[in-house]
Amino acid sequence: MKNIIFKWHFNLLVFAVAIGFSTSVMANNVDPVSQNKLLTEVLVEFENRYNVLFSYNKSLVKDINVEFAFNNEEELESSLKRLLALVELNYDTYGDKYIVIYRQSEEAERDLDLVLKHFKEIEEIESKGRLRISRKNKGKSNLANVKEELEALTAVENISGIVTDNNQNPLLGATIAIQGTSIGVVTDIDGKFSLEVSSFPVTLKVSYVGYTTETLVINSAQTNLNIVLTEGLSLDEIIVTSRKREESLKDVPVAVTAISGRKLEAIQANDITAISDIAPNVNFSFGGAVSGASSAAVVYIRGVGQNDFLQTLDPGVGIYIDGVYMGRSVGSVLDLVDPERVEVLRGPQGTLFGRNTIGGAISLTSKDPSDKKEGYIKALTGAYNRIGVQGSVNLPFSETFKARVSAKYHKRDGYVERLLVGDDLGSDNSIGMRANFLFEPSDKFKLRFNFDYTKEDETGAAEEQLNPNGVFVDLFNNNVVMDPDCPNNNPDCHQNTVSTTPYTTNEIAPNFNKVDLYGIALNGEYKISKTVNLKSITSYRNLAAAFTRGSDGGPAVLFQTNNDYDQSQFSQELQLISSTDKLDFVTGLYYFSETGSDFNMVEATSLPFIPTFPLEAGGDIDNSSFAAFAEGTFHVTDRFHFTGGLRYTTETKRYDPLAFAVNSPTPNFVTRGFRSLDFNKVTWRTIAAYDISKNMNFYGSVSTGFKSGGFDARYTAPTTDNEPTTFEPEEVTNYEIGLKTSFPDANLRLNIAAFSADYTNIQVQGNPPGQIATVTFNGAEASIKGLELEMDWAPTGNLIISGSLGLLDAKYVSLNENANEFTLDDKLIRTPTSSYNFSASYLFKLGKKGGTLLPRFDLTSQNNIHFEPANNDFVFENGYEHINFTLTYKSKSKKFEINAGVLNLTNQRYLLSGDSNGVLSYALGTFSRPRNWMTSVRYNF
After folding, report:
1. Could you tell me if 222 and 346 lie in one domain?
2. CATH number, domain with residue 175
3. Are 636 and 583 in contact (CB under 8 A)?
4. Which residue range(s) make up the domain with 215?
5. How many separate domains does the chain show?
6. How far is CA 121 from each of CA 2, 118, 183, 342, 692, rounded to the nearest angstrom?
7. Does 286 fall in a domain?
8. Could you give the residue ranges of the DSSP H alpha helices within 246-299?
9. 473 near 488, Cβ under 8 Å?
10. Residue 288 domain-assigned?
11. pTM of the model
């Protein structure tokens, strides 16, 4: 059977004149006199005359009289338009023989969509031999049978009722769906719902977070159905927007992990770095190379990312908050303040996402305001003098204007003791808030205004000196204590300047991390038609940060870095989104601009006789990016889908370097003033997807990613013409196949992806000979292959098990001429060959009035991982297993929740990040926090 045609008639309904037309009338071209008849009778005449079949709700045509006469030479389309204009009805076509009639009203589109969805059921009936479509001149007896079946399929009946819990409390937002279809509704504030169906019996699937999913078989229309859900564990339907439109996770042919806000709370996630404990092949930490900043995100997905925080470098994994790109890694370790969900897209996303998603994208979506006045407040405490409070309130001021305001405060002592200073590194002290306002004056238009603010004032990353025998020990022995007879390898001398006791340091330099960050966004959506939406995202963000730390690890300031870091950005994105039965597409324009400055001063106050210090580096940036993009999915058949996408990007990087002294007999100075680099690139993606069944989808894709080049802001050797050095863009081409499966009867969801990526012109950080500082250059090309598996299983209403596995085989295949520090045998940084996580929860029901108790076990494991391109044994992690255990009590009324847990249960000490300098022979590392406990109380209102 042919596919559905929407509103475009293309003359497909032009058929032969029905048998029985009067030959004399045709010959004389005489119009019969109009007669007053019932509309139903006229429609029967249409069926006989043009050999077609009508489908309509009988209530539309009941007892309607029309004065109508056929024109003998008039074709079907023209004649039908004349008739329906008399009664203000519309029509649409299905295939070459079926016509549906519907109202001309605001409900018309909804009614038509519903009927056309049911038409698809005809195809299934026909394919099984139970429905034969009569063809022209093959008689009408079979057509009558077809009509009976079609009317049964398209007759609209209503099922309505209420969904409650065991205490008869209405459940807002419960989902009632027709099993095996995308047709469904959600309950309102009173737990009520109304669902139109076309045939009986029908199987309904009723689900709600925290409750066991119920499956009901309904045999007839009902108006007072009472559905009671019991507390339990089940697999929730996950909706994502990874392709700029809402889709079920199982239908998206992209490797994406979606993590709900409640799940992030269940695993005690304080910030967004927790996603690396869930999503496969994701490494997310903080305190990038030579920064010491605990707010600087370092993210690698499938071996692709960025290890440095400089403003002249772009992140390798794009982080987005409500669709807005975070331009800098500093400030991107986002606190989780009342999130709706976090989506982790793995692999290059070079068509739909704003900038520099060469390794992948992390998209945080905050909760929209709802129609219910509700909220919560939560207080927590724990080890290391941990205290915190957070809360959220939803305020529906009217049917058209709603607000949701959330806030969070968190404080915790550090865990690496500075023995000679008396404080601790790695502390937390932050406050954050988010306000979301939703204005929806009509069904066609909605406007969101989002505001977020974060302030941090804490000690820096908990770094420890890992190399006790580096250059700094000799400098201390020979120039601070002035003992030239004390060589570095003499154990009786001052090697104990560097502490070798875990979680301690003798470092005394000033150490802090301060961040002041806010953002505003205006998100507008306008429904142009039933299939086309226009969306606009306008945003401004501002960041001010300061961080400093010492890297020598001893009781003298031999090497200290200080950064004053400011950045502001503006972005504007327009998206035109359309969805029809044959084609889904997104097209749009994107603009991004930013200005910023990073003043970086390196001091050695205990060595004033060295003329190089203090060394000043950094400078000002003024960058812009513009892109045009389009991606469409063509549904070749109901099962086969083909996607193609293109993005054209043009970027300008402008940099004004600070004049800095270099370590040479005659100090050189880089000339001040802005200079520019321009980059243009076309990236693309193709996907072929096949639905093996309703619950099993296979896809194959090829995608490309691009991250622009830039200026090196930390070069400390003489340069040609006193110009700063530059580096070129890096690129990734990714080949991937995947299988997404869902087994509703077994409550099992399993996704598998395998990929191979070519990674060229990799931007790496190293220490060339004669360089004190870490610089950026294009170092190598690499091949990365991998496998990812994700599983969620709820074998009973009390037990849910989840897990993921990531395998990587990453290796350099060639080295550039600048890569004189490392070899082809070195491993890519932050790319473990295997990682996995496993979690299990079991729900205990404590009697009729006792509430529930939910223990949860989480295990995260990762094997060997390097942190320097020139692999360094000091900044290397051989592998670990991290275990968390939590216990949650919920009262029967759901008003109170009490949570207690132990994090890092087995007290594992493993490296989270590391940095080394080959010239100065130091190596720094940040380790996991030791075993610690926490407890919290939450009140929902």
Report:
1. no
2. 2.60.40.1120
3. no
4. 157-228
5. 3
6. 13, 5, 13, 35, 18
7. no
8. 261-266
9. yes
10. no
11. 0.80
